[in-house]
Amino acid sequence: GHALFDPRIEAEQNEEATIARELQQAILQKQLELFYQPKIDAATLQVTAVEALLRWRHPTLGLVSPARFIPVAERQGLIEPIGAWVLDHAIKQAATWRAAGMRLRMAVNVSGVQFRQDDFAAKLGRVLKTHGLPPDGLSCEITETVAAENTEATRRAFMTLEQLGVHVCIDDFSASPPAMAALRQIHLHELKIERAALAGCVRDAQARKLLENAVKAAHSHKLRVVAAGVETIAQRDLAVHLCSDELQGYLFAKPMIARAVIIWAAGAPSALAQAFRPTAFKDTQPLDALPTQVAFQPTRISMQR
Ligand code: C2E
Ligand code: CA
20 to 30 A from 23, CA-CA: which of 51, 56, 103, 265? Predict the structure, then answer.
């Protein structure tokens, strides 16, 4: 037989080994950070939730994208401690915001490896209790690919999440018929249309029809539909036309640090954290101390419908 050697394979393997070694130290050395990207209610323009997105502040490489290191963490058995770190920090932040009167939901990305663990829901329940966040204050984003596996392990995992009472969102939803069939078996709250599917619909009438039908089916099951990766006015208009309930994307806000979320929602770059406008958050109970007559002017997220 023949064996072909490509030096690129060796280089990739070396790089992966280096990332894995350094990633092990990243938690201990406090190099992981969470950024938050708002989701906005399409009808009221209020902030309904934020999605926690992980960043690795590497000492020499700078901010490393999760798209680079999460797959390595999954392959190298490191996703469990990283996923646990994300849950703990995101839930703690959500509880802190709630205590300050901002009752927005926190969404976290859950890796398939983490999700399939037998004790995932039990661990999650303990973290929610530790930080005092009600389960429905958390949304678990699970990719369509993992949900569509439709195995005993994933079915059980969805059931335990339902019993726990957390929200479940299917991420990177493509509206493909096999995915639609698999999703009928699961108790869900939200579908998030993937960026490519939305972008593709702007030009492709057939793809748009497929998505329109999927959104109709989702609404008939009382699911909320989120359009993600909205970058342009055309995509925003299409998302609104498709009756998306929520919008997320660079057109409205990029992922940002926790303090910036409050300032962004207040709509004034100079605003102090405690001066945020209570009406900016959909589920916010106005605090007595804050002036309730101040209406939220969505200067940064203005849109015509
Ligand atoms: P995702 O869950 O699909 O997250 C959306 C990604 O698209 C984020 O990239 C976000 O910054 C980016 N994005 C948001 N709006 C726009 C837009 O309008 N245009 C464009 N071009 N991009 C947009 P990010 O933060 O680099 O995350 C990449 C992926 O890494 C995420 O994709 C998610 O699958 C994964 N990830 C991030 N944080 C975590 C985590 O804590 N745990 C796990 N397991 N995976 C994570
Ligand atoms: Ca996500």
Answer: 51
